[in-house]
Specification:
Layout (H helix, E strand, L loop, with lengths): L10 H28 L3 H21 L37 H21 L6 H31 L1 H20 L7 H8 L7 H18 L6 E4 L4 E4 L8 E2 L4 E2 L3 H5 L5
Antiparallel strand pairs: 1-2, 3-4
């Protein structure tokens, strides 16, 4: 184990969160890589190449932390990225991006959610995570500027371009919000109590919505979130599909109509 703080918590829980962070970063890097050649503009291609390197670099710094929790893994082969077969990334990242709008939505929504977690871990009791979190948060400032710029650009283009963006955001929305876990999620709640992050799941989700909703609202992109004037924070407007949420992998199972075609024309 690295330090005594890590020994005080459920090692399997921290292992799962670290694995999810690393797997999502690696998966994003793989999906971004295609758009280093396929982006709609030269400057976008250059940015995609740079972000590909950043995300894969983040994954490479996170995977070694799993070795500190090797005893928490039921299968020791799940520790090293070379032998790891479990993938705790969002289901949205299972396949290639269908369009540039999928890239933009992932950069804006999912990468923003992970950055929200790393912001909450900048004073973590677990020193290796604290060090990595601070560096990742700093590097993600450029990613955020890129994401917000392209969200504005695609939204203001109108027509089919705007609709493609909205569709990508909607398909990623629920799964991204669920990544933080339910309000009583035992994993994130315990990480908070033990000082590994500075907020419980509900607060992390609210911080995240504060990060993305002002821009979406300003562009008249309607998403299922509402501002609570009494609590002065953003909240989901609708119940999230926790019945489809897999706690260990922190991802959603596909909805019934997505697997059977039910309800599709």
């Amino acid at each position: 184990m690295t330090g005594t703080a890590a020994a005080r918590i459920d090692n399997a829980a921290l292992f799962a969160v670290l694995a999810s962070l690393a797997d999502n970063k690696q998966a994003m890097g793989r999906r971004y890589a295609y758009w280093a050649n396929g982006a709609p503009a030269l400057e976008a291609a250059v940015a995609a190449a740079a972000m590909t390197q950043d995300e894969i670099g983040h994954a490479r710094t996170l995977y070694p932390l799993l070795e500190d929790f090797a005893q928490a893994a039921a299968d020791p082969r799940q520790v090293a990225p070379e032998t790891r077969t479990l993938r705790y990334h969002l289901a949205f990242l299972d396949g290639e991006f269908a369009s540039w709008s999928d890239f933009v939505a992932t950069n804006f929504l999912l990468d923003g959610a992970l950055t929200t977690f790393f912001e909450a871990a900048q004073h973590s009791a677990y020193e290796p995570l604290r060090q990595r979190a601070r560096k990742i948060v700093q590097e993600e400032q450029v990613h955020r500027a890129h994401a917000e710029g392209w969200v504005r650009r695609l939204a203001k283009a109108g027509g089919a371009v705007r609709q493609a963006l909205v569709s990508s955001l909607q398909r990623l929305w629920e799964e991204t919000l669920c990544w933080f876990g339910p309000d009583d999620d035992p994993v994130m709640s315990q990480l908070y109590r033990e000082g590994f992050i500075d907020a419980p799941p509900a607060e992390l989700r609210s911080r995240y919505l504060q990060r993305v909703m002002p821009l979406l609202e300003g562009l008249a992109i309607e998403m299922p979130a509402r501002f609570d004037p009494e609590g002065k924070r953003w909240l989901p407007r609708e119940a999230l599909p926790w019945e489809r949420w897999e706690a260990e992998s922190r991802r959603l199972r596909p909805a019934l109509h997505e697997t059977t075609g039910e309800g599709q024309p």
